[in-house]
Amino acid sequence: MNRFLRRTRAIAHKEMLHLIRDPGAVYMALGVPLVMLALFGYGVSVDIDHIPIAVVDQDHTPASRRLLQELTAGGDFVRAADLPSPEAALPLLGRGDVRGVFVVPEGLARHRARGEPGALQFLLDGSDGSYASVALGDAAGVAAAASGASAALDLPIRVRFNPTLRSAIDIVPALIVMILSMVSTLLTALTVAREWERGAMEQLFATPVGRTEIIVGKLLPYVGLGFVQTLLITTLGAYLFDVPIRGSLLLLFSTSLLFLVCMLGVGLLVSVVTKNQMVSVQVAVIGSFLPAMLLSGFIFPIENMPALLQAIASVFPARYYVSILRGTMLKGSGVSLLWPQILPLALFAFLVLAVAVTRFSRRLA
Amino acid sequence: MSAIVVQELRRTFAGQVAVDNLSLSVEAGQIYGLVGPDGAGKTTTLRLLAGLLDPDGGRVALLGRDPFGRDGSFRESLGYMPQQYSLYGDLTVDENLAFFREMACLSREAFAARKERLLALTRLAPFGRRRASALSGGMYKKLALACVLLHEPKILLLDEPTNGVDPVSRREFWDLLHGFLADGMAIVFATPTMDEAARCHHVGLLYQGRLLAEGAPSELVRAFDHPVFRVGGERASVESWIEKSPDVLAFTPAGEQLRIVVRRGRELLVRGAEGDALRLVLRGRDGSRSPAFDATPASPTFEDVFLARVHERHEQTEA
Ligand SMILES: Nc1ncnc2c1ncn2[C@@H]1O[C@H](COP(=O)(O)OP(=O)(O)OP(=O)(O)O)[C@@H](O)[C@H]1O
Ligand SMILES: [Mg+2]
Predict the structure, then answer these.
(1) Does B82 sit in the ligand 1 pocket, CB within 6 Å?
(2) Fold of B4-222
(3) Is A30 in contact with A229 (CB distance < 8 Å)?
(4) Which in A60, A166, B6, B230 has the greatest CB count within 10 A?
(5) What is the pLDDT averaged over residues A297-315?
(6) Within a domain: A148
(7) Residue A243: in which H helix or E strand, if any?
(8) Per the domain annotation, does A364 fall within a domain?
(9) Where are the domains positioned within chain B?
C-alpha cells in the first residue's frame, strides 16, 4: 500500500511537472473557460438594461405620470423622449434612437379607479429579435410590478422566452458543464497517448509500477487543475452574471469533483485505447463536448426528446451534473433531493476508471 | 540455475517471423551480446524478455520467474533500457533519477549513495539541473543507463545502449557495466556492431530472428575454419570476381585492400613468379577462373565470422 502511494505520488508529481512546463495546457485549462464564459455569458445578456424608449402620455393624469415614472425607475428602460402621439415615435424607432414606445391611453386612470383592468400599449422595434424579446420580458415584468396590489395592468402581448435565449442565471450552470467536459477530457486525452508516442511507456512498463498507479497518478494533477477551473467559473459566474449559489458550497464542489473525475476518466480511457494524440483529441471532443452540449438539457430539454435519445442521454454524466448544478446553485437543493443525480455520476466515475485500467495493456503490441 | 533462460521463443508480427525458436541462457555475472543487423529481431527479443510483448510460443525464466504471467514481481529485479529515447525530456537529470527512484521505491539513503556513485561514474554530476532533452546523445544514454541501474537490478537488458556514444564514453560505459557484473548482474546487450559484441562473455549471432551461432567470441573465432585473406590488386576486377564467385562467403574493405572469406577447400592458391608472394585465384559459377590476385592470409575476426555465417544462412534458405 505504501508503495502504491509512493508510485502514485511520483507519477502525479511528474505529470504536474509536464503540465507546468507546457504552459499551453495550462492556458487551455484556464483560458478556454474564460473565453467560453464571456462568449456565452455576455452573448445572452447583451445590454438587457437601459433600453431607450419613448413615452406617450395621452391620459395626462397624476396617476399616469406616476405609472410612467415607475416604468422607467427600475433601470431596465431609459426614458429617451416624451412624445404627444405614438405616430411621432415612428421616426425615432426607424433611426434606432428608441427601441420601444410606451403608450398610456386616455382614460386609463379612470378605468383603474373603477377597479377595471387597464391596458398599456408597448410598441416595439422587432428588427432585432433577441433584443426585442428581452425588452418584452422586461416590459412585462415592469408592468406587472407597477400594477401592484390594484387591478392588473395588462400588456397586450404575452411574452414567451425563446428557449435558447435563457438568462445568464440559467446558462451559467450549463456552461460549467460544457467547459469542464471539454477541457478536462482534452487534457487527459493527451497524457497517456503522449507517453506512448514519446516512447516513455516502454521504459515505464518495465518498472514495477502498476497500471492503477499510472492511471490514478495521471488523474490527480488534472483533478486539481479542473478544480481551479470550477472555482474560476462559478466565482466569475456569480460575480459577472449574478448567478446565485443558494445550496451548499461543499455539495457544489464535491459533486463537481465527481464530475471532473468522470470526464478526466473519459479522456484517459480514450488515450489508453487510441495510444495516439491526434486521434485521442478528436475522439475526446466528440465524446465529451457534443453530449455535454446536446444531451445534457443545455440546449434541448431532455424531457422533450424521443425515448431513444433520452436513453442515450442518461448514459452521459453531463445531464446529471446539469441537474445537480441547477439544483445547488439556483434552487438550493441538498443531497436528499439530488442523490438520484449524484449516484449515476459516482457509478460512471468508478466504471470509466476501472475500464481504463483494464484496457491499459502493458504490452507494446 | 542460469539467471536468464530462454527456450524456443517465437514471436510473429502479422505472420512475419521476428523471433524464431530462440533459445539461450545467461549466467549471473555474465554479459550476453545479441548481435545482428537491423531488423534481426534484437529489440523484439529484449521486449519479450522484459514481458513487454507476448510470445507466440516458448518460455522465458528471469531468475526462475515468468515475465508473461500475472505475477509482476520479476520487474523488481529487472532493468530495461529501450533502444529509442524513453526518458522524460522536459524533466531534468535529477528529476528523471528521482522519478525512477520512486518507481523502484528506494530508500533515501540507498538512493543518495547510488546516485552519487552513478553520477560520478557517468560524469553527469554537473548536469543535475539540465533537462534531459538538452543533453548530448551520449550523455542522454548514460543518464538512461543510470536510471535503470538505480535499483541495482539482477537482470539488465540493454538495447543498443552505446548507439551514438563517442568512443571515450563508450569505454566508460563498459567499465560501468563490468563493475556491476562483478556483483552478479546478468546482462543482455543488443548491438549491431561487432567490436562491442567481442567484449561480451558470450555472443549470439542473430539473423532473421534465429541464432546462427553462439559462444564466447574468441571461441567462435577459433572454431571458424574458413580461410581469410587480404587481397590486393585492381579493386574493380577483384570486386567483380567476388560477385561472380560462389566461394566467397564474406568480404569487407580494409584500406586499399579487401578482406575476403573463402569457403574452406575452395581456395586456389598459386605461388607468384618471385616464388614468395602468395596469389589467390577465384572460381566463377561456370568454372571460369579469375586472374591470380596478390593475397595475404589473415586470421579471422569476429566480423568475418558473423558475415560468413549470415551468408551461409542465405545459401541454406535459398536451397
Ligand atoms: N510492433 C511491431 N509490429 C510489426 N512488426 C514489427 C514490430 N516490431 C518489430 N517488427 C518487425 O520485426 C522484425 C524485427 O524487428 P526488431 O525491431 O526486433 O529488429 P532489431 O534487430 O531490433 O533491429 P534494429 O537494429 O533496427 O533495431 C522487423 O522485421 C520488424 O519490422
Ligand atoms: Mg532494435
Answers:
(1) no
(2) Rossmann fold (3.40.50)
(3) yes
(4) B6
(5) 81
(6) yes
(7) none
(8) no
(9) 4-222, 228-299
ipTM of the complex: 0.88
Q: Would you state the pLDDT for residue B261?
A: 93
Q: What is the mean pLDDT of residues A67-92?
A: 82
> Which of B246, B272, B277 has the alpha carbon at shortest distance from B261?
B246
Residues A12 and A26 occupy one common structural domain: yes
Q: Which helix (H) or strand (E) holds A233?
A: helix A211-241
Whether A174 and A260 share a structural domain: yes
Decide: B84 in ligand 1 pocket, CB within 6 A.
no
Residue A171 is part of which domain span?
2-39+166-359
CA distance A353 to B191: 40
If asked whether residues A272 and A196 sit together in one domain, one would say yes
Could you give the 3-state DSSP secondary structure of residue B297? strand
Domain boundary among A126, A160, A194: A160
The environment of the single-atom ion ligand 2, i.e. residues with CB closer than 5 A, is: B 42-43, 83
Residue A222 lies in a domain: yes
The domain tally of chain A equals 2
The string of DSSP codes covering B68-109 is: TSS--GGGGGEEEE-SS--S-TTSBHHHHHHHHHHHHT--HH
Instruction: Based on the fold, state whether residues A190 and A307 are members of the same structural domain.
Output: yes
Distance CA B11, CA B5 (A): 16
Residue count (chain B): 319
Question: In sequence order, what are the residues at sequence separation of 6 or more whose Cβ sits closer than 8 angstroms to the Cβ of residue B274?
Answer: none
CB contact under 8 A, A209 and B103: yes
Q: How much is the average pLDDT of B126-139?
A: 92
| Nearest CA residue ID for atom 12, ligand 1 | B18
Alpha-helical runs (H) found in chain B:
42-49, 93-104, 108-122, 137-149, 167-182, 194-197, 217-222, 235-244, 302-318
CB neighbours of B212 closer than 8 A, spacing ≥ 6? B205, B206, B309, B310, B312, B313
